[in-house]
Design goal:
By secondary structure, this protein is an alpha/beta fold. It is built from 7 helices and 15 strands. α1 runs parallel beside α2. The longest helix is centred in the N-terminal third of the chain and has 18 residues. The two termini are 21 Å apart. The N terminus is likely disordered.
Amino acid sequence: MNSRRIFLANAGTALAASTIVGATPTNESKIERKRVLRIAHITDIHVQPERGAGLGMAACLQHLRSLSDKPELILNGGDSIMDSLEQPASRVKTQWDLFTKVLKDENAFSVKHCLGNHDAWGWIQTKSGALGTEPLYGKRWAQDVLALPNRYYSFAQAGWHFIVLDSTQSRGNAGYEARLDGEQYEWLRGELNAVKRETPILILSHIPILSMTAAFFLRKPDQNAEWTIPRNLMHADGLQLQQLFLQHPNVKVCLSGHTHLVDRVDYTGVTYFCNGAVSGGWWGGAWKECDPGYALVNLYDDGSFDREYVTYGWKARE
């Protein structure tokens, strides 16, 4: 596995680098604790007929099945297919059919899905040819295939409360931006208020709420200009969400993907893990030194957790 670095913000604005694999959470309990759930967070599969992506997705699921310490739940973080924003319906169907087949044939675990930006059909109408009036337009197609109860939802398991967000909002032919719409924000606020204070909370979003990888995504090594983070790479409402989380100290950890990179940021009591990509560089190998992989996240009865990024040996092919 290639060398990688993560960035941590410790209760303020200072950043420091550390190795990602086997990183110990700063909130890890010093007393005996019991693991209550082991999760595999797979994200950014971007399955397509080309580049052996279906075989790669299968290899990832086979790798999960081969683990001696297996997960009990998969969280799929979105961008399940290569792209439907710009694609005609026939191409979208081909991708979803492949995703569904591989998942049916190779998966052995319970799965909860999250919507990614590339899972929304037709928003860029100048390229997709969609009119915007089709029954499956936008997120509806992905919701139906993934059997989602809603584009955002929650569930409880093993003494933890899970909140799955919909990060992506349309900007029409200009693409998308990362934020919660007003309806979803009010739902989230009510959801957090309803959860008992002693119940730890994990939040899953496709696009990071807070991540240094969003700053690295497009930046080249020789660029020394001011740092900028586009609204489509990290939640534009991240500060608003951080202020909301401050009112709910049982929000422990947020998982995301989208940037195809791995990092960890600790800020005001919440740990933000960005967990790479099953597809790596969209099935072209590593993306900025980050190999194709997935994260294993252990949750404990005292509200603590740990994370490891695991590569599964996939090699790019034409």
